[in-house]
Amino acid sequence: MSLTDTIRQWDEGISAVDRQEWRTALDCFTAILEPTSKICFNIGCLHLLLGELNQAETAFDKSICRDEHLAVAFFQRGITLYKNKKYEEALRDFIEAFNRMRGNQLIDYNQLGLRYKLSTCQVLHNVALVHATIKKWDQAEEALKKALTFKTEAKPNFVDQALEAVVKQELFQLLQLPTGELFRPKRKIVAQLEKQDFLGEAKVVASIIDKDAFSGFAPLQPQAPEPAPQKKAPEKFKTLEGAPHRVLFNFIPNNEWELEVQSGNIVFLLKKGQDNWATVTFNNETGLVPYNYLEPLELEKGEKSPPSDIPAPPRTTAPERPASVKGEENLTNETVTASASKSQDHPMPVPTIVKVHFKYTVAIRVKPGLSHSEMLAVIGKKLQLPEKRLGLSYKSQENGELIPITSETKMKNVWTEVRNQRLTIWCKFLEVVALFDYEVSVPADLGFCEGDIIQVLAQVNNNWLEGQCKGNTGIFPATFVKELSMAEIMDSGM
């Protein structure tokens, strides 16, 4: 079964779920020949909803085998085992789901297509329920007290109610996913599966034959001779006011005062403001563009008439040069010749235009071959930010991946990516601020308090970062921090 057929079958099953046609949805999912972990999870949830516990357990087994990091699959299989009175196995699954939470208060599965947030409190609540079911009240109370440390709100909730029941040695309610909450395919991908007719039906709108009533096929009609092509006069850049400039990069306006231009366009500069914005005219339109997106352009001779206020050249001959100057003439000529020869032996390097992608984009002219520290200093001065808090990366033209620039060796590789004196570099902050307290659960973790400034050393994966805080180094969840704003950077380091 192709990927397109799988997604279409998946979407049909979700449509049946929305209509609460559980058996129809189950048939759609089971018809998929090579189900993914998400599809197996959906099959298990439908069997659990229909009371088919053994089939649900088998489906959740397949889901976990395909993705052993899916904490919600362990959670659902634990619920299935508990309902099937396999309490010891259910306890192991709930504990395994807790371990997959990795100390986070919750995991939001919305990005994966499941509109549900699994919290650590819910997992520990079900752990306590299994202990209470097998009459281990002390372990149940211990699990619920641990769940209180993961609460995200101060008001009483299901954990507090369960703790009151344990004190009375009474059982409490099992927590489950809401009915009908399954993994759904992305709507953009489903929309792309629909066939679209961009051309429509062919239709005759006119005929070159007067009162033509023929609707079939006819031979080609004689065509009128085309006029002989005339040689077009070469275009010249002329303007009544403003200096011509060439656009270096594409610019997309954000408001009505800005002007859209493309790389290579010729615009005429009317005014340059102190805020690095220039007023230009292009195609009879006037607007604002960043001045560092432009470079001056010289016009050919005779293309712009000189101003009327320039005086006429003198008509008399120049006076004779003084004797002292005559004696120095040969020395002056020799000096100029030697200087020109030296200039030819050591030509001036052509500057490279570096486009820096930050929270905004800037363009900088630099001398080719700058070292890593020199490049950081130039970019830090341009952005008016401390260079020690900035990290640079470049995109490899071989695989298109962003590669961090962490040494002088990496910086030499960057200069090999220059094309037509153009180079693109990505820049970001190397510091983040903690949103919540994070306690160390294993030696490799980095603990911190809310509001602490953390220096980012590396990105472990999409969910974990490695950093340094208060002299300690370790890994921490990326969801516990955020990038410093411009105001926070200025307050803390400038």
The helix-and-strand class reads alpha+beta
**What is the residue-mean pLDDT, rounded to a whole number?**
79
* CATH H-tier superfamily of the largest domain: Tetratricopeptide repeat domain
Report the helical percentage: 25-40%
- Radius of gyration based on Cα positions: 36 Å
Could you give a short account of the major beta sheet?
A: 5 strands, antiparallel
Cα(first) to Cα(last) distance is 59 Å
How many helices in DSSP terms?
15
Shape, principal axes of CA atoms: extended
**CATH topology (level 3) name of the largest domain:** Serine Threonine Protein Phosphatase 5, Tetratricopeptide repeat
Q: How many domains would you count in the coordinates?
A: 4
Quaternary organization: single chain
Please state roughly what percent of the residues sit in beta strands, choosing from under 5%, 5-15%, 15-25%, 25-35%, 35-45% or over 45%: 15-25%
- Uncertain segments of ≥5 residues (pLDDT<50)? 235-239, 300-306, 324-343
CATH class of the largest domain: Mainly Alpha
- Please state the second-level CATH architecture of the largest domain: Alpha Horseshoe
According to DSSP, the number of beta strands is: 17
Task: Explain how this protein is built.
This protein is α+β, with helices and mostly antiparallel strands and 494 residues long. The chain has 15 helices and 17 strands. The protein has helices at 3-18, 22-30, 37-49, 53-66, 71-83, 87-100, 120-133, 137-148, 158-167, 187-192, 323-327, 329-345, 372-383, 408-415, 486-493; strands at residues 106-108, 117-119, 243-247, 266-272, 277-282, 285-290, 294-296, 352-357, 361-366, 390-395, 402-405, 422-429, 431-434, 453-459, 464-469, 472-477, 481-483. The strands form 4 sheets. A 5-stranded antiparallel beta sheet has the order 6-5-4-3-7, with no helix packed on it. The longest helix is centred in the last third of the chain and has 17 residues, at 329-345. The radius of gyration is 36 Å and the shape is extended. Mean pLDDT is 79; it is low at 235-239, 300-306 and 324-343.
